[in-house]
## 1
Amino acid sequence: MNPHSSAWHHRLVLCLAASALSLVIVAGCEKKDLRPRQPIAAQDIKIGVLYMADPDRETSGFTYEHQAGIRAMQKALGLTDEQILIGRNVPETDFAEEERRLREFAAAGVNIVFATSDGYDDASVKAAAEYPGIVFSTLAGLHRNATNLTNYYGAIHQARYLSGIVAGLQTKTNKIGYVAAMGMENSEVTSGLNAFALGVESVNPDARILVHVTHNWSDPAGEALATRILIERGSDIVTHHTDTPTPIREAQKAGVLGIGYNSDMRREAPDIVLTSVVWHWEAYYTALAQSVIDGSFTTAPSFMGIKDGLCGLSPLNSKLIAPGTREALARATARIGDDSGIFDGVMETNDGRLIGQADGKLSPRDIVHNITWYYRNIVEIHTAAPGAAPLPPHSAYFQQAAPS
């Protein structure tokens, strides 16, 4: 996120509302969705986008997919290249630099700013107050106002659940490796991991998910090490929640199957990728920009899912997937709606606690903000806090790792 700051779980609150943008699921909020704006002709629209990386240097992953969404929106609305301004390599921890880039956008005459990290939230709040004529939308942001500041994210846990079904049917060792950028305290990562674990269990109750936390959104060396450790522990499938494709590349080196994230990772590892959990950000970017063009914009936060076209699975690898996978996915997809069929009823954590109610389901807010526990089939391989001593070489660490 990004959801890419360690403060994510403290900052994300999504609100339950219907929006003219789309059918969205959001968690309860005090502010009403007020003050539709005046229409702006498409030829007069100018859009600024803040990125943590340089999208032109990415071949897959987080920033790459956001840029793909922006370009698809541009094509859908008939915008020129001059109408899209890109802010590259903007640190999410440098408020002064964020503010400077937003002022540059304002001076260039933008109407809309998409800030692709929750680390940009505070700067967006300040800029929205200074420039009331510009619409600001922050990925996984906490704040919104009644006029020109909103936020967005998506129900990626739905696609994670489906990918768990793919893995659960495929594994032969009943050990599936998961490289996680952040630990249990980060609900964005943990909700996806738990949804994956639930999907695995729905088709294979004997399988276990081995999680290794890197405590860094983008750490190729740490992700490679984590992947090797998980493979040494017996994982015959590896998946990940990281910004880079390193775990999938490492899995291909080892000849182990993989499930990608953010992008269709067949371009990175065509021989081993079963499928990928992917974002289609154009669904949101196009809807938001169109609402500004036609004057229907409101500040209702957006939390779209599979049925809205924001996320899903990339095409399955027919040469690799287990028999019955497509049928199992079709059944599961049919029952996923408003988060039904995933975080329902009473669930047991991996430390023996019970979560939820027999006749209930977790709310969208709980899913994206309050899941700070691991489901019962998750085994923690490495979750040391940031600042801990560096890991020894992976072969040595394997000897020291906690038993399964």
## 2
Amino acid sequence: MKNTKDIRIAIISSSFRMEVARALERNCIARLKRSGVTRSQIDIFRVPGSLEIPLVAKKLAAKRTYSALIAFGAIVKGKTYHFEQIANECARGCMDVSLAYEIPLIFEVLAVYDIKDALERAVGTRENKGVEAAESALSMIRTLSDI
């Protein structure tokens, strides 16, 4: 694995449902710090909503300065098809970026049926997606450096 001092991570967070994104960020950063990544090695970029995440991810991946990208947001099902459109296209766009630039893009844009479910995954201690995102990013950095 790369020495943690050489790791740079970019977090891309949706400003919509900010309480979820901020909780995910806090838990992710805390976990990264416990692994030896300093706060100065982590950049945070905010976008208006989840659909804007893939474009910013693409621009960041093209810079080739980051070891991994992490996407945070929450999409809550309403009464229209909009939920599916945003969730599916955000996921597809992020996967496209990851494959095109061969960079880990950890996808924790939570598509849920109730905001309470997103908050439980963002602030909970049993299943915390911010912590899982940090662990996945570090694992992927390690795996790719071994290839």
## 3
Amino acid sequence: MYLGAHVSSSGGIENAIKEGDRYGINSIQMMPTAPMRWATKNIPDEDIKRFVETLKGSGIKKILLHGIYLTNLAREDKQLFHLGKMGLVVYLDFANRVGQLIKKNSLDVEILGVCFHPGSQKELNYEDSLERISYGIDWVLKEVGGTQWLLIESTAGTGTNMGRSFTELKAMRDGCKEKGRVGYVLDTQHTYVAGYDWIADMDSVVEEIGETLGYNRVKAIHLNDSMMSFASNKDRHANLGEGKLGDETVSNILHRKEFKDIPFILETPALKSSSTMEKEILHLKELAK
């Protein structure tokens, strides 16, 4: 089973690997740049070499990159739309270059791709927003060749945020010409408050994921409990076992046979400090037994 957490790359991108090893996890999610700053310059070669050198002595097997939070591919505003695309270009380029070095060094590590929040309706109507997101994804994939994927993240559907349903996520991918490198990251908290009942009808939720999205295109699952109630469309994560989902539901998600090859990544409030993060990861491992 692949168990992980979002880790910090503060002080150098290789520190994300060290932090993952420190907590004894085999999967990490990271951002190679500041989360609330536009990314417009590619990561330097020397940083990437140092990152892969650190991987050589690591137990990390799966790495997910999370795009900056400023990205909104549904924007009509040309400058903001372009900045959002360029942030994904920088991260996808990073994923490709790291992946090439991993292969060159014969390391047993997989870069899962770059996940991102698709955006929210601002200036455009619903249909045009969907089309704009698909166009943006295609533009990025054409700009950066290779084998790495862009992964659309499911959202809680707060306000005008796009990506609240599996059919909506599928529509974004279906609108792409380069859909062979487009997949998904699902968030248990987001999907629960968006109307997918993990507690009362998990079988139906899992079945719909397979039929609508395809398990092979779901590259990671953000494993978060929820502070907010079912179908509330409110994005508020809770620590495992402390929210509406609870330990039993989280454990059942971890043990679904359909998800056996999909990494589970924590994004819970406990990750904000080292002491609470250690306890949260131990709790995750207990639930996964």
## 4
Amino acid sequence: MQLKDFHYDLPKSLIAQSPIQKRDMSRLLVLNKETGETTHQHFYDIKKYINPGDCLVINNTRVIPARLLGQREQTKGKIEFVLLKKHDTDIWEVLLKPGRRAKRGTIFVFGDNLLKAEILDILDGGNRLVKFYYEGIFEEVLDKVGIVPLPPYITEKLSDKERYQTIYSKYNGSAAAPTAGLHFTKELMADLEEVGVKIAELTLHVGIGTFRPVKTSNIEEHHMHSEHFVIDKKAADIINNTRKNNGRIIAVGTTSCRVLESVADNDGTVVPTEGDTDIFIYPGYKFKAIDALITNFHLPESTLLMLVSAFAGRENILNAYHEAIDLNYRFFSFGDAMLII
């Protein structure tokens, strides 16, 4: 398929620049993937569409202040790091700019020397492997010197950093939020569990590569970035038992979907796994693990738009997006939501 097949025109005014006042007050477009029929609700109405015995699969990753602004130790030349992936104790893969200054052995400093980084290696694609030096606990130092890396289409400053975290976030490691989960409140989650909806937690640490555009005209030539995930036995058992009891597996976000589709057998059985996934889901893919998907509205020509098009059909998705535009839905990370059933 061609990249242009996933283009749509979006007025800039519909790109949400800040989160809505109450998480579950966002709008919800419900799309029937078989018929293409749409219904318009609010996110708190999602309870109407999730049945007792269904299972929500949530990504409990937590966004870290992964953007570091610093300078070269000797020349004081400015540098920007974005932490992508932890390889070992104090060793990270980073995206940086300008990259030409980052030769092997170069030292960079951040936050009045609270944190130092040495370039260990230059990786394929230009990312660097770096070792950090500091006193104390890395996460505490990072909180002092780092910045939450909001997507480039958000230009307003975020007043409350917790609004870029899900209410169930636990494990530090992401450079971007699993944004479908941003709509849930503690009260809504409690209501769902009270009526018998199961909750299965997994972890996928979202990399900044989620914002990288597809640059190949033939989408099949695109290579996905790799992201680390964990799904334990408890979560796998909940998911597998749900399927045995004829409940639906509802992925909260494309991140949860990608993990499930990475670890599922052909019959949909989920296996406890820790590893990395670079699965690329686009139309033609046969889903094994999920029955429904909660997601946000995604960028034109993005891999995430391709994933939801694979699940619901490209025409159904683009028709729903055009309808959402006509009705002034809010798009992207802080925008409104879609339930595909």
